[in-house]
Amino acid sequence: DTAVSQTPKYLVTQMGNDKSIKCEQNLGHDTMYWYKQDSKKFLKIMFSYNNKELIINETVPNRFSPKSPDKAHLNLHINSLELGDSAVYFCASSQTGGSEEQYFGPGTRLTVT
Amino acid sequence: AQKVTQAQTEISVVEKEDVTLDCVYETRDTTYYLFWYKQPPSGELVFLIRRNSFDEQNEISGRYSWNFQKSTSSFNFTITASQVVDSAVYFCALTENAGKSTFGDGTTLTVKP
User: Fold this and answer.
1) What's the CA gap between A49 and A52, in Å, rounded?
2) Which of A26, A89, B5, B26 is the most buried (most CB within 10 A)?
3) Residue range B101-109: mean pLDDT, rounded
């Protein structure tokens, strides 16, 4: 049983396109996150949702829009993709807020050409 | 603002050597949480340990041990008798009460046979 799953695993697309990455967790956790990991392996939080409510929204271009249809899902939609968006995007979840450990999905490698 | 510094970008050791990964943090909160995560070459992020700011007890789990010292704002991680399978990027992370997680830049550990 996969605890945190993401689809797709790989995404190759051209500049200017719109794409979505889906995330689902079956751990019963209340909080979900999106992280971006760049080519230097730096890991930065983008968004955090608690029970479908946005609680953390870091300095991310508004081309990135998270959507949480229920507390088990947190999808990431990206408009007008740019070369600099190429990265690995990780979804994660935790029991409550940041005081608990996070469980990460396998990552989605996005390549923008 | 919270900050996590992992001064060692890369460490290379030979199997069976002991190795310590340093983590220094900055926070203004009195309540906070510290974590270590491992990212092996396969790319997934795996939780290793969590510590809250009120618990300075050191912890040992098999070959892994952690030394938390509030006086020096450090949360160091030692691997005893390292093995090739320990090769990975290790991240130290800090979460304040507000729930936002900040990750260090990671330390890439290479264990050679």
Assistant:
1) 6
2) A89
3) 95
Nearest chain B residue to A96, by CA: B99
A47, A65 in Cβ contact below 8 A? Answer: no
Which of A41, A45, A92 has the CB atom closest to B89's CB atom?
A41
Chain B nearest-CA distance from A113, in A, is: 22
pLDDT digit string, tens, across residues A56-105: 888 789 999 999 999 999 999 999 999 999 999 999 999 887 788 999 99
- Interchain CB contact of A39 with B (< 8 Å): no
Residue B66 pLDDT class (50, 70, 90 cuts): very high
pLDDT at B99: 72
Instruction: Decide if B95 contacts A99 (C-beta within 8 A).
Output: yes
Residues B64 and A60: their CA atoms lie apart, in Å, by 36
Question: Which chain B residues have a beta carbon less than 8 Å from that of A99?
Answer: 33, 52, 95, 97, 99
Q: Tell me: pLDDT of A1 over 70.
A: no
Answer yes or no: is pLDDT of B98 > 70.
no
Determine the pLDDT at residue B58: 87
What H or E segment, with its residue span, contains residue B32?
strand B32-39
Look at B95 and A48 and tell me if their CB atoms are within 8 Å.
no
Rounded to the nearest 5°, which phi and psi values hold at B101? -100, 135
CB contact (8 A) between residue A103 and residue B33:
no
Residues 6+ apart with CB under 8 A from A62: none
**Residue B69: both structure tokens together:** 């010292």
